[in-house]
Amino acid sequence: MLSGIAAGGFLLSFILVGSKLIERIPLAALVGVMFVVAAETFNWKSLRGMAKVPKHDTMVMVVVTLVTVLTNLAVAVVAGIVIAALVFAWDHAQQLEVEVTKEADRKTYCLHGSLFFASVTQFTKFFTPKEDPSEVYLKFDHARIMDSSALEAIEALAGRYRDIGKALHEGA
């Protein structure tokens, strides 16, 4: 920690006091120094562990690196956040499950997981309105409704049941 503070202090004083000397250093020499510093400070052993890192995390790292080189760090950070959020949503959407119980004149769907924009398509595939009995129950005891897309999907599902003369009830 002390070495970092000292290095920062010396660099600040060198820039403030020796700015005329810095201007005389050729830019190519500074780029060479930067490459040497980057190569020496990179932990090359960390590349061995890349096989253990999830593929989507590796993809985010590669994309952020490329975007940093091609544009700038601020754009790369935003791109990394967006990609990581989309990957998270995709992974979370895959965790939606339904448990179906049938009785003589009714069928109950018990939803498990999070229902949101990324899981709506999977949610609608769970239901078979034409084959279901006239009384169908949908339980949300183990589920979370996360956004308006989920509400719209539930309303659309209820509409599908209504259109064929069947009732979709919440709970019970």
Question: What's the topology here?
Answer:
Elements lengths: L1 H16 L1 H4 L4 H15 L13 H16 L2 H21 L3 E6 L3 E10 L4 H6 L9 E11 L2 H16 L3 E4 L2
Parallel strand pairs: 2-3, 3-4
Antiparallel strand pairs: 1-2
Q: Specify Rg, calculated over alpha carbons.
A: 28 Å
Number of helices: 7
> At CATH's second level, what is the architecture of the largest domain?
2-Layer Sandwich
Element order, helices and strands? Answer: HHHHHEEHEHE
- Helical/strand content category: alpha/beta
Low-confidence stretches: none
Distance between the first and last residues' Cα: 61 Å
Examine the coordinates and then state which fold CATH places here, giving the name of the CATH topology of the largest domain: Transcription Regulator spoIIAA
Binned, the helix content reads: 40-55%
Largest sheet: 4 strands, mixed
- Give the overall silhouette: rod-shaped
Overall number of strands: 4
Quick one: CATH class of the largest domain?
A: Alpha Beta
Q: Any overview of this molecule?
A:
The protein has 172 residues and is of the alpha/beta class. It folds into three domains: 1-42; 48-93; 97-170, STAS domain (Transcription Regulator spoIIAA). The chain is built from seven helices and four strands. It has helices at 2-17, 19-22, 27-41, 55-70, 73-93, 120-125, 148-163, and strands at 97-102, 106-115, 135-145, 167-170. The chain has a four-stranded mixed beta sheet, with helices on one face. Strand 3 (135-145), helix 7 and strand 4 form a beta-alpha-beta unit. Helix 4 runs antiparallel to helix 5.
